[in-house]
Amino acid sequence: MEKVNVLVLTGYGINCDVETAWAFEMAGAAHVERAHINRVVNGEIKLDDYQILAFPGGFSFGDHIASGKILALKVKKEMGDHLKKFVNDGKLVIGICNGFQTLVKMGILPGSEHNVFGPQTVTLTHNDSAVYEDRWVRIHANPDNHSPFLRGIGAFDVAVRHGEGKFLAKQHYLREIKDHNLIAFQYVDENDEITQKYPLNPNGSDLAIAGITNRKGNVLGMMPHPEVFINSTQHPDWTRLDKMPEPLGLTIFKNAVDYAGNEL
After folding, report:
1. N or C: which end of the chain has fewer CB within 10 A?
2. Mean pLDDT over residues 5-18, rounded?
3. Residues of the chain with pLDDT > 70: what percent?
4. pLDDT confidence band for 113 (50 / 70 / 90)
5. Long-range contact list for 77-83, CB < 8 A, 24+ apart?
6. Which domain holds residue 78?
């Protein structure tokens, strides 16, 4: 397995970078760098030196205009060419919560068949509840999506923390996402059935979508926070369960590190 370097972006209201870095460290990455985005823009940090790039959660630019919108414009304008090469090289990108919003609003998710950056065809908007949702939910990985991030993952509990997490798109774009198996995660009930029922589906997302990938599967965006379930004792019911819950949030990061180390 080759040495895996991970770059976790910080700055402008991003506030989940520490937990995200810990998750990659626990997953076995050789080096995890938390760096302000401006250090990438000015060339101090070279994307070419890394195999995995993370856009963590938070409230970039105070969620002004729309969550992730300003950060998306900044990234696309000031480091878009480097990011395009990164993705075309098959390297891995993960965007969590605000990071997912950012990837969607720069058009990298769902992207297009031939281009890293496509037009923005989907959005993440205000929850149907019209309140900030801070709760644990259950999600299920799409078995037909062969993204390296999703290997060996079924259903698991995970936390959400967002005010604008409703995945929304016109019907023909939703059909394309479904037909090309770009759905990564969906909200499910206690029987692991896809659900639109609140609060199991905390935001009212179309098709109960909690996360998607691009067509290559090397870019993943998701609203729930897997970095807050990297240890069994982080589960809110761990003392009440018959056995310790498996922290499948950590598995997402392990999958990324293993893939980067063996395939890139």
Report:
1. N
2. 97
3. 100
4. confident
5. 78/41, 79/37, 79/40, 79/41, 79/47, 80/106, 80/117, 82/40, 82/47, 82/48, 83/47, 83/53, 83/108, 83/116
6. 5-263
Stronger pLDDT, 225 or 66, i.e. the higher one: 225
Which amino acid is present at 29?
A: A
- Give the number of domains in the chain: 1
List, for residues 206-218, the tens digit of each pLDDT value.
999 999 999 999 9
Label residue 39 by pLDDT band (50, 70, 90): very high
175-186 confidence digits (pLDDT tens): 999 999 999 999
Residue 16 bears catalytic tag: no
Cα separation, 168 vs 165, whole angstroms? 9
Taking the C-alpha atoms of residue 194 and residue 188, their distance in angstroms, rounded to an integer, is: 4
- Annotated catalytic residue, options 140, 162, 164, 227: 227
Task: Check 140, 162, 225, 235 and give the catalytic one.
Answer: 225
| 227 is annotated as an active-site residue | yes
Q: For the domain that residue 68 is a member of, what is the CATH number?
A: 3.40.50.880
Q: Is 176 a catalytic residue?
A: no
